[in-house]
């Protein structure tokens, strides 16, 4: 019985690792404007909130993206760092998100939040045009 439970746990872990790899690969291969849409949707969701006025750090956004697909967040998410940063910059240039520096060092010291314009753009379904024009 214990051996069966260990086997099942090992199989579940392998499946979760496979799902994680597939989702990271999928997100990393998206064109920047498509990843920007995924990031904006993540910022608009309740699952990534750290505080309404404070915003969220990039790692929390990546964690949400990976975990919402059934994967697990960890060191394997590193390939998403640069593409997610680029997506956030595109969204910021389009005035769809706002980045605010917070205390701390490194690339994850900025906190991001969706703007009113970003919320309206999502409601209108007009993000691709706005993000493509913000390069």
- The ordered H/E elements are HHEHHEEHH
Low-confidence stretches: none
Give a count of the beta strands, DSSP E runs of length 2 or more.
3
Count the helices. How many?
A: 6
CATH topology (fold) name: Arc Repressor Mutant, subunit A
| Count of separate structural domains | 1
Strand content: 5-15%
Largest sheet, if any?
3 strands, antiparallel
Any idea what the radius of gyration is?
17 Å
The CATH architecture can be given as Orthogonal Bundle
Average pLDDT reading: 83
- Strand arrangement within the widest β-sheet reads 1-3-2
Per CATH, the class reads Mainly Alpha
Shape call: globular
Distance between the termini: 58 Å
Helix content: 55-70%
Classification by helices and strands: mainly alpha
